[in-house]
Amino acid sequence: MRIGDICSSNPPSVATIGFFDGVHKGHRFLIGQVRREAEARQLASAVITFPVHPRKVLQSAYRPCLLTTPQEKMALLEQTGVEQCILLDFTPYLASLTAREFMEVLKNRYNIRALVIGYDHRFGHNRSEGFDDYVRYGQTLGMEICPAEAFRLPAPREEVPVSSSLIRRLLLDGEVAQANECLGYPYFINGTVVCGRQIGHKLGYPTANLLPDHPDKLVPADGVYAVRVETHGQHKAGMLNIGKRPTLDNGNDRSIEVHIFDFNQDIYHQPLRLSFVQRIRGERRFSSLDELTRQLQQDAADIRALLKA
After folding, report:
1. Is residue 190 part of a domain?
2. pTM of the predicted model, to two decimals?
3. Which residue pairs from 239-243 have beta carbons closer than 8 angstroms and sit at least 24 positions apart in sequence?
């Protein structure tokens, strides 16, 4: 996959545009359609996206809850088989363009011959314009506008439309298993192991404290989770706690700490990836350290059974 602000060397392409946070099943379904449309027209396939969330450019104080960092997003997009990824720097000038002006940029600068978009997709500063307007502009510009097929995830009683917003809500509610179903892969956090307070070691469950690589990466709801851990090239099962550790009077210091089963290596200052499998319970205060230890023993047994570890 070619990545960058590709211009003069850009081949004639069929493209779609979006932020693609998470590169979830809905995104992959859309990109699959782009690839099919490109093949039918004997053109290249492309996605157009932004390295920084557009709203953050316009509102400097805005903090997005990212499902994927820019680097993670690029890696996931490459897995879709799309031939090129065009990175647009979203600027106030770009935001000021009308939809037609923006389409001119795509056609003349990036050689986009066909654009696959949904009926509810909006771009350009005048958001009152819609799909029919884009079709009309495309006819004058020599750019075909193709309607995107809808993707919905089957559910027991209704069809659920998959979106990045839905996945964020699920994660913030601790529903990681449902979020994973929408993503098509386990939600993960990459980070570096940092020094903690060593309380877990005293309780018989030493933990690695994780500092996420990106400050805007979404951290799921507080609680205890079954996770897969990747570190030092090894894949292990783990018991993760996210929260303020109320039994230990941790104040407002929210931590991400994982006990890795059957592992005793020194991994301070080393990279680590957590892949979420299921939330076991919410975080709560216990009356004593003995009660907390008994609960940790039960949590560990439940998680080992779940992960077959």
Report:
1. yes
2. 0.91
3. 239/205, 239/296, 239/299, 239/300, 239/303, 240/274, 240/276, 241/207, 241/283, 242/283, 243/283
